[in-house]
Amino acid sequence: MKKLYWMMGGILICAGLVIGIVFWKFQKEIKKDDPEYIVQFIKEHRADKNVSVAIQRNQQYWVELNTKEQLPLASTVKIIVAIAYAQQAAEGRINPQQQVDLKELEVFYIPKTDGGAHEAWLAQLNLQGVDHVPLSEVASGMIAYSSNANTEYLMHVLGFQAINDVLTQLHVEDHEPLYPIVSALHIPVQVLKEKNLTKKETLAALQEMDMAEYRERASSIHASWIEQPLTYEEKAEAQKLLNMDFQKIWSDRLIRATTNDYISILEKLNNKNFFSAEVHKYLDPVMEQLMQNPKNQEWLTHAGQKGGSTAFVLTLAAYAEDKEGNQTEIALFANDLNTMEQIKLSNSMNSFQLKFLTDDKFRKRLKREFSEL
């Protein structure tokens, strides 16, 4: 069968055993990789505008649900940064082999705010004392490991105007402009100190702040870090303030777009006829790292994906073409998730993609059932 290798005293003793068994069953349930969970979740939330799904196969829609609802993208937005990187590399405006000092990336790293992504990327590099990496590796780490620090560094190198120009080129209708999302994590500290507020007052001030001011503050913080990076103590201070209430505000204010937008983008990446061959020369190695696995090469011509998550959000944008020429694009965005939903969706997404790509009966059932809703 095909596989898709994607890169998360006696009574007391008896009571302990029962608790242990219940906990084991709970752990087993939430970690279960079940494509049917995704199907049921979509059905149950079909009237919920916090869930949006668009699935396309061979230029025909198979599933459409709330496709024009703007929802937070989380790290899925990094696809836009990857495209801007490839364009500038193709035009000779940046050099993918330029060596980047890891200390420059550290400027945009706030510990314990990215699920360990940046540290995981550094660990797999096996640097052994090396303190520089090529710019191309920074871009690869942004997609494969979802390093937020790499992303914000690339935003600095590429320029926000050039990155947002990509949205115009792609003709997307409902995509919000990109802004520095790591720098936004420092807004609570800035507001608290600037206005001498309590934690509760700071939370209220952020809730009332409009997006124009929020983006402007994030951009200003980003620029200030270039000149004067935060100290370790200042980063720890920012991290300490980010309880779940502040995280929810940050999550809700992440760049938003629609699955309709991303199906359009994914189709362009899949067809490979929108961008030039020179752009794809730099874009595909970043976006299609799945194809480094020989098992995927056996049955796929190409495939790429970028997911994203916060404590409240799960998103996925994926595309693939199999050896028979069938093209598939999947965009699924979900917001305001509880912990159980977030974990189960995340654990089941891989098998859902695989089943849709390889199981014709499953595809036909989905099309039939969702057309009847």
Q: What's a concise summary of this model?
A:
Pfam families: Beta-lactamase2. With 373 residues, the chain is α+β, with helices and mostly antiparallel strands.
Structure description:
- By secondary structure, this protein is of the alpha+beta class.
- The protein has two domains: 35-73 and 256-371, no CATH class; 75-252, no CATH class.
- Helices cover 55% and strands 13% of the residues.
- It has 18 helices and nine strands.
- It has helices at residues 10-30, 35-44, 78-90, 102-106, 117-125, 135-144, 148-158, 160-170, 187-194, 199-208, 211-227, 232-241, 244-252, 259-271, 277-287, 294-297, 339-358, 360-371, and strands at residues 51-57, 60-65, 71-72, 99-101, 132-134, 256-257, 300-309, 314-322, 327-334.
- The strands form three sheets. A five-stranded antiparallel β-sheet has the order 2-1-9-8-7, sandwiched between helices.
- A hairpin with a 4-residue loop joins strand 7 (300-309) and strand 8.
- Helix 3 packs across helix 7, helix 3 (78-90) crosses helix 8 and helix 3 (78-90) packs across helix 15 (277-287).
- Mean pLDDT is 91; it is low at 6-12 and 16-26.
Task: Write a concise keyword list for the protein shown above.
55% helix, 18 helices, two-stranded antiparallel ribbon, single chain, Beta-lactam/transpept-like, membrane, Beta-lactam_cat, 373 residues, D-alanyl-D-alanine carboxypeptidase, carboxypeptidase activity
What coarse outline follows from CA principal-axis ratios? globular
What can be said about the biggest beta sheet? 5 strands, antiparallel
- Kindly, what is the distance between the CA atoms of the first and last residues, rounded to a whole number of angstroms? 32 Å
Work out the strand percent: 5-15%
Query: What value does the average pLDDT take?
Result: 91
Q: Label the structural class.
A: alpha+beta
Tally of domains = 2
Helix content: 40-55%
Number of DSSP-assigned strands: 9
What is the spatial order of strands in the main beta sheet?
2-1-9-8-7
Number of helices: 18
